[in-house]
Structure formats: structure tokens, C-alpha cells
Write a structure and sequence with these properties.
CATH architecture of the largest domain: 3-Layer(aba) Sandwich
Radius of gyration: 25 Å
Largest sheet: 5 strands, parallel
Number of helices: 12
CATH class of the largest domain: Alpha Beta
Distance between the termini: 79 Å
Order of helices and strands: EHEHEHHEHEHEEEEEHEEHHHEEHH
Length: about 400
């Protein structure tokens, strides 16, 4: 792509993207625009990005606070679906990528850039997620993926390149972090180094957001979550914006050791990968959302959602947020949430989220008069069950009779 004059780089300010910035300038002789998305990873990562970009001669620097948009338009729609990948993973990294791709394309249009670039490696899922997003939103955009082009294939080579070109790299401790980490408002992930042996237990000092269940408070803490159309709008009676809601649940869940996960997952590119995750707020959200749906959703609607959920979760994991099939599923999911209103009470205790109550003033389908084990005053005729059972047994009775005739 020799005619590249300007490229928008998804820039964190870390070692990889700092090297990529210089590499793009030298390899393509182009102007680089940096874009840093604040999606809740913490000020210690976001704040230095501007100074580092200026040091590298960048003239157009975008640092955007996307926390509210991230939770409102990406996290909450995903949780309406109860999405969970391979039975455990709450998709914390996956759901952030379509937002970053969207904003990156918007900046490319605004700055009249020829291309976009990212720091995802050629082994991982993120290259797919970013680039599917780019092409879905801007089909003719050119994409530069340095990890698929250069020969800087190790941390040592990256550090050597940085020293050679005077690229500032902060080393928190000798040898650097033992993990590759990614954080946003929904989760923090850990991969690489010692975690590449799936038989080894993570050391306790790795975890940053959550107290160990063993050291968590000995007294349970109760929360009341208020739902409107499938989304949490208040915690303990306090109305909160989407981002503030998730921040609050992260703090409460983390204090009680909620949301740790050690997982070997199947990457879209074909390999297995071991990752550890902390998702305290999301763990509470999933448990509570299923509780409020249990009294407000029709049985077949709930079961259909459960049937479709693994497909929906895989679409997000594999990078198809902007696909027509994900949008179609989202329309159905959102329609199911019109009646998902009410309150859920949960108890947090030593790594557990325990539902202790749920109610809905207008939309509950739970009828005590029918469900009671006491005298229901004729609300339900138990004799009706006999015909119901015989009809549902008919096909099995036909097969059983056929077997009897063959034996006879």
C-alpha cells in the first residue's frame, strides 16, 4: 500500500502500539493519527497516551471518553441476551472491539485518512474483530496490521527497536509484567507467560479487581437491582447512568470475590488459549437478569432465547457485532425485553451471587393462586393433566406397542 498518506492507529501508548506508531511512520512514510479509547481501563493507561503521541511527532491526537456509550450501546444489549461464550466467558474483551472499530472509522472519515491500523497479533481473535468491524462500516478502507507484516516477533525485538528509535517505554518492573492484560469497564483479562501452562494455578497477586473469596468479608451484602426493559437502572434505589451502574457493581462484587474465571477457550483462528478474567459487575448482572426474566418472560420466549444465545455469543466472540444476523437477533432480543421490568435482590458472599428475591408490579407472570401447593380455590383443574400427559405420551406408546407386536 505505497500510496498511504495518513493512517489512524488504535493507540494505547504501550510498548506494541508505540513501536507500531514509529514503524508506520518509517515504513509507509505517512502521517499517523492516534486514537485512544477510554472505555474504563483506568487513568494510568489513558492519561500518558497524549504525551507519548506528542513525543513521537503526532499532530492529530484523539482521546475519547466512550465509557457511557460502551455500557449503554454494547454491554447492556449483550446482557439482555444473557450472552456467555462456551458456558463461562462473559465476553469482556470481545464486546469492546466493535466500539473501538466504529470510532476509529469515524476518525478516519473526519481526518480524511487512507487507512486504519491496530496492534492485534496474527494469532489472536482481536485482528478479526477489528477488521470485520472496519469493513462492515467502511467497506473500502485499507487496513495495516503490522504484526502480519514486520519481523518484530518477540518482546525482546520490540524493546530493541524502541531503544534504537528513542521510543519511551515505561517498565513497571524488571522484566515487565508477567501477563498480557486488557481492561475495560466490564472486565480485566490476563494471558501469556506463566498462564500458558494451563495446569498451573494463577498466583493470588495477579488478581487486581477482586478480593480472594477466602479473604472476602464474612458477612453477606444484599443488593436490590431495579430493571426497566431488561436493563438495570438503579442499584439500592439509586438511579445511575449505565457506566456508573457497572462501576458500582464492579466495586461491590470485587469486594466479595465475585467474578473470577480461569478458562481455556477456543479461539476463532483455531487454537486453544488459556485466559483468566475478572468480571465482578457482569457476573452480578447475568445472575440478576435471568432472575427478573424468570418471572416476566413467557416460557417459550425464554427457551427460544436460551436456544439462540450460544449463536449470539459466538457472533460477538468472533467479531460479527456489525453483521446483519447479529442485528436481526438483537431486534428479537430487545423485543422480548419490553416486559422485563421489576426488582431483583441478590446476596454477595465469598465469590457467590445468590438470588434471594424477585418481583414485578406490572409484568409478573407468576400467579400464586395457580402455583400454590395449598387450596387453589379451583384456579387450576388437576384432572386436566391426565389428558395432557396421555397426548404427550402418544408417540412413545405407539413405538412401545410396535415393539411388543414384533416380540409377539
Amino acid at each position: 500500500m505505497p500510496d498511504i498518506k495518513k493512517v489512524v492507529l488504535a493507540y494505547s501508548g504501550g510498548l506494541d502500539t508505540s513501536v507500531i506508531l514509529k514503524w508506520l511512520q518509517d515504513t509507509y512514510q505517512c502521517e499517523v493519527v492516534t486514537f485512544t479509547a477510554d472505555i474504563g481501563q483506568g487513568d494510568e493507561e489513558v492519561a500518558p497516551a497524549r504525551a507519548k503521541a506528542k513525543h513521537m511527532g503526532v499532530r492529530e491526537i484523539f482521546i475519547d471518553d466512550l465509557r457511557e456509550e460502551f455500557v449503554r450501546d454494547f454491554v447492556l444489549p449483550m446482557f439482555r441476551a444473557n450472552a456467555i461464550y462456551e458456558g463461562e466467558y462473559l465476553l469482556g474483551t470481545s464486546i469492546a472491539r466493535p466500539l473501538i472499530a466504529k470510532r476509529q472509522i469515524e476518525i478516519a472519515r473526519k481526518t480524511r485518512a487512507d487507512a486504519v491500523s491496530h496492534g492485534a497479533t496474527g494469532k489472536g481473535n482481536d485482528q478479526v474483530r477489528f477488521e470485520l468491524g472496519y469493513y462492515a462500516l467502511e467497506p473500502d478502507i485499507r487496513v495495516i496490521a503490522p504484526w502480519r507484516e514486520w519481523n518484530l516477533t518477540s518482546r525482546e525485538k520490540l524493546l530493541k527497536y524502541a531503544r534504537k528509535h528513542g521510543i519511551p517505554v515505561e517498565m513497571k518492573k524488571k522484566g515487565g509484567s508477567p501477563y498480557s492484560m486488557d481492561a475495560n469497564l466490564l472486565h480485566i483479562s490476563y494471558e501469556g507467560r506463566i498462564l500458558e501452562d494451563p495446569s498451573r494455578e494463577p498466583v493470588e497477586s495477579m488478581w487486581r479487581w477482586t478480593m480472594s473469596p477466602e479473604k472476602a468479608p464474612n458477612r453477606a451484602e444484599y443488593l436490590e437491582l431495579e430493571y426497566r426493559r431488561g436493563d438495570i437502572v438503579a442499584v439500592n434505589g439509586r438511579k445511575l447512568t449505565p457506566a456508573k451502574m457497572l462501576e458500582t457493581l464492579n466495586k461491590l462484587g470485587g469486594r466479595h470475590g465475585v467474578g473470577r474465571l480461569d478458562l481455556v477457550e477456543n479461539r476463532y483462528v483455531g487454537m486453544k488459549s488459556r485466559g483468566c478474567y475478572e468480571t465482578p459487575g457482569g457476573t452480578i448482572m447475568l445472575k440478576a437478569h435471568r432472575a427478573i426474566e424468570s418471572i416476566t418472560l413467557d416460557r417459550e420466549v425464554a427457551h427460544l432465547k436460551d436456544d439462540l444465545m450460544p449463536r449470539y455469543a459466538a457472533l460477538i466472540y468472533n467479531g460479527y457485532w456489525w453483521s446483519p444476523e447479529r442485528k436481526m437477533l438483537q431486534t428479537m432480543i430487545d423485543a422480548s425485553q419490553v416486559s422485563v421490568n421489576g426488582r431483583v435482590r441478590v446476596k454477595l458472599y465469598k465469590g457467590n451471587v445468590i438470588v434471594v428475591g424477585r418481583d414485578s408490579d406490572q409484568d409478573s407472570l407468576f400467579d400464586p393462586a395457580i402455583a400454590t401447593f395449598e387450596d387453589d380455590q379451583g384456579a387450576y383443574n388437576q384432572l386436566d393433566a391426565a389428558g395432557f400427559i396421555r397426548l404427550n405420551a402418544l408417540r412413545m406408546r405407539i413405538v412401545a406397542n410396535l415393539r411388543k407386536k414384533r416380540k409377539g
